[in-house]
Specification:
The complex is a heterodimer of chains A (308) and B (323).
Chain A lengths: L6 H34 L22 H7 L2 H31 L7 H8 L1 H4 L2 H11 L6 H9 L14 E3 L2 E3 L1 H26 L4 H9 L4 H29 L3 H6 L9 H10 L4 H30 L1
Antiparallel strand pairs in A: 1-2
Helix pairs in contact in A: 1-13, 2-13, 3-8, 3-10, 8-10, 9-10, 12-13
Chain B lengths: L1 H6 L27 H7 L5 H32 L3 H6 L15 H8 L2 H32 L5 H13 L2 H14 L6 H25 L3 H9 L4 H12 L1 H17 L2 H7 L8 H8 L6 H31 L6
Helix pairs in contact in B: 3-15, 5-15, 6-9, 6-12, 6-14, 7-9, 8-13, 9-12, 9-13, 10-11, 12-15, 14-15
Classes of the chains: A mainly alpha (308), B mainly alpha (323).
Subcellular location (chain A): Cell membrane
Pfam families (chain A): BPD_transp_1
InterPro entries (chain A): MetI-like (IPR000515), MetI-like_sf (IPR035906), UgpAE/MalFG_permease (IPR050809)
């Protein structure tokens, strides 16, 4: 007869059994596919080959990675992606901070406004993109109607297809700015939430003492609030950067990658669906993941140095 | 938010008494401040204060316009006749005799959005049910049990959370086509579950930590097995949190676009709402119908969000306190 398990052995067994199903799903639908991406990146395989794909007849090649690495279109997409991700994450955190500070002190109706501010974050992205496309439409969109009627624009602007437009001495990347604005609009609520939550636990006595000593609000913010918020803002900026860097939906739905907005995620999609090449799509995705890992590593290193 | 979950099972947001101390509502802040004292101290408002006051008003007004505006614009366009939208883009508010709701039945029946909604409902419900089932068990284990590999599991989940969806989409598309699961709603459900379980687990942990473990112990002493304990004791206590998490997962599944596009685009009968609306924009469908469709698929999500807003917010931001 087996001896009954000790309490800690039983805890160990139960813990593993309870986490088991989750681990299996995650392994099958996330970890295994990621390993497959690494494999596919070095295979000569196209969409038409799928029915004949067996583990024992794989043709290895280094050409996918080489082709992607040497493609100017990949690098220009990489630059666009970096600009897009950096601008959207900085924008989201700064707008989130501004709104969180503005809504810090209670007033009548604040609860409703707080809830309303979160709406862009929960909207279906397709609905949001469809409404934005209508707003920016050159023919009947509100923005162009206002611009032509009241702001004296000579002609409507095709916001989502215009790569660049001269504004005085500057060339403005119109479509890219639009997709960045959309991303900031859609994601600042999350930054707002986190900064608000952090603001609620900032010790209030120091702030009051500073105000009694005559420090203005700007100084209180710079010397007391900002250091308190710096950690959560940095974390948010990094997380937003990672997510915006891989964003496919918003850009594909708004511009389809036209007008100088082709980001890496859209390249992966078009390699897969338009060119039907699984190998180059995977290679693009793999290089993209590598870039993300570099960002994560730099952040982890900075945090560690900070703590040391 | 992700950083804290690997190393800090007891979130600081939860007070030792086990109740959440940071609701995001009006009452959330500290007690009322002595108004008289404030007025005495700063008898004259400085220029700085006045400028900041104006800025504050502008930020709040701007935030309201920018967040609610597009949705309101969609609603207004959806009830105007198509001709008038085309000819008078600036007349936002339709006159009463002009208002028409025809675009809604057109979108739902004629353009097949009704069928899409049915598909999305099935997918989102199945995803929420499965993800909750898995993550309740996982979150309980993560909060209460010490087991071999707990740390590793957490790191793997965090990694999955950060892996680009578009990168996973390539092999998932290939592998699922290979086994014939693309073109089925079931394949989509599995992918969604894998994508949402880490978030659900993270949110549920926050709610479970708030339940004192003495409850477990007394149930165990009374002879309750582990699964019965979870079902009969822990689950009822954490029910609001579980409901909020389920709603969040439901929203993600309902809103998802990329995987639906890759897996189902060829099969019109299986389109989800996101795919349905996105495909309609490719054809020359009247804008009013598109707006009506967009609003129709948005209403369930926004309504659910407003119902569970407070709980959702606590679950999502619990990691922020640490900074």
């Amino acid at each position: 007869m087996r001896r009954p398990l000790t309490i800690s052995q039983r805890e160990d067994l139960h813990g593993r059994l309870l986490v088991g199903p989750t681990v299996i799903v995650v392994l099958l639908f996330a970890v295994l596919p990621f390993l497959a991406v690494v494999l596919f990146a070095f295979l000569d395989v196209r969409l038409v080959d799928i029915p004949r794909l067996y583990i024992d007849n794989l043709v290895f090649t280094g050409e996918n990675v080489a082709a992607v690495w040497n493609s100017p279109r990949f690098w220009s997409a990489a630059v666009t992606t970096a600009v897009y991700a950096a601008a959207s994450s900085a924008g989201a955190v700064l707008v989130g901070l501004a709104v969180a500070l503005a809504l810090r002190r209670p007033f009548r109706g604040r609860g409703l406004i707080r809830a309303m501010v979160l709406v862009p974050y929960v909207l279906p992205v397709v609905a949001a993109a469809t409404i934005w496309k209508t707003l920016l439409n050159p023919g009947y969109g509100l923005v162009n109607a206002v611009g032509v009627e009241w702001l004296g624009w000579a002609e409507p602007i095709a916001f989502l297809t215009t790569t660049s437009r001269d504004l005085g001495p500057f060339a403005v990347p119109v479509a890219l700015l639009c997709v960045i604005a959309f991303e900031v609009w859609k994601t600042f609520p999350l930054a707002f939430l986190f900064i608000t939550a952090r603001l609620q636990v900032v010790p209030e006595d120091v702030e009051e003492a500073a105000q009694i000593d005559g420090a203005g609000k700007t100084r209180v913010f710079r010397h007391l609030l900002l250091p308190e918020l710096a950690g959560v803002m940095a974390l948010l900026a990094v997380l937003r950067f990672l997510w915006s860097f891989q964003n496919f939906n918003d850009i594909y739905l708004l511009t389809g990658g036209a007008g100088g907005t082709e980001v890496l995620a859209v390249r992966v999609y078009s390699e897969l669906v338009v060119r039907a090449n699984i190998g180059t799509a995977s290679a693009t995705g793999l290089l993209m993941t590598g870039m993300l890992l570099v960002v994560v590593a730099v952040y982890a290193w900075l945090i560690r140095r900070e703590r040391a | 938010m992700s950083e804290t979950r690997t190393e800090n099972p007891r979130h600081p947001i939860v007070s030792p008494e086990g109740e959440n101390v940071v609701p995001l509502g009006d009452s959330g802040n500290r007690g009322p401040k002595p108004r008289g004292a404030t007025r005495l101290r700063r008898a004259r408002r400085t220029t700085e204060d006045r400028v900041l006051g104006v800025l504050r008003f502008i930020v709040i007004a701007g935030a309201v316009v920018v967040t609610a505006g597009p949705l309101l614009y969609g609603v207004l366009l959806s009830v105007r006749p198509f001709q008038s939208v085309m000819s008078e883009p600036l007349d936002l508010v339709p006159s009463l005799d002009e208002v028409t709701f025809d675009a809604y039945p057109t979108a739902i029946a004629e353009y097949g959005l009704g069928g899409n909604m049915w598909n999305s409902l099935q997918v989102a419900l199945a995803t929420a049910a499965l993800a909750i089932l898995l993550s309740v068990l996982g979150a309980y284990a993560a909060v209460r049990l010490r087991f071999f590999g707990r740390g590793t599991v957490n790191v793997v989940f965090l990694g999955v959370y950060l892996l680009p969806g578009i990168v996973l989409a390539v092999p998932l598309f290939v592998l699922l086509s290979r086994v014939g699961l693309t073109g089925s709603l079931a394949g989509l459900v599995f992918v969604y579950v894998a994508q949402t379980v880490p978030v659900a687990l993270y949110m549920l942990r926050t709610y479970l930590v708030a339940i004192p473990s003495s409850v477990d112990e007394s149930a165990m002493i009374d002879g309750c097995g582990r699964l019965a304990l979870i079902r009969r004791v822990v689950l009822p206590l954490a029910l609001p949190g579980v409901a909020a998490t389920a709603l969040y997962v439901f929203m993600i599944a309902w809103n998802e676009y990329l995987f639906a596009l890759l897996f189902l685009v060829a099969d019109r009968d299986r389109w989800t709402v996101s795919l349905g609306i996105a495909q309609l924009t490719e054809f020359s469908v009247p804008t009013t119908v598109l707006m009506a469709g967009s609003i129709a698929i948005t209403v369930p999500v926004v309504a659910g969000f407003f119902l569970a807003q407070r709980l959702l917010v606590t679950g999502l931001t619990s990691g922020a306190e640490k900074g």
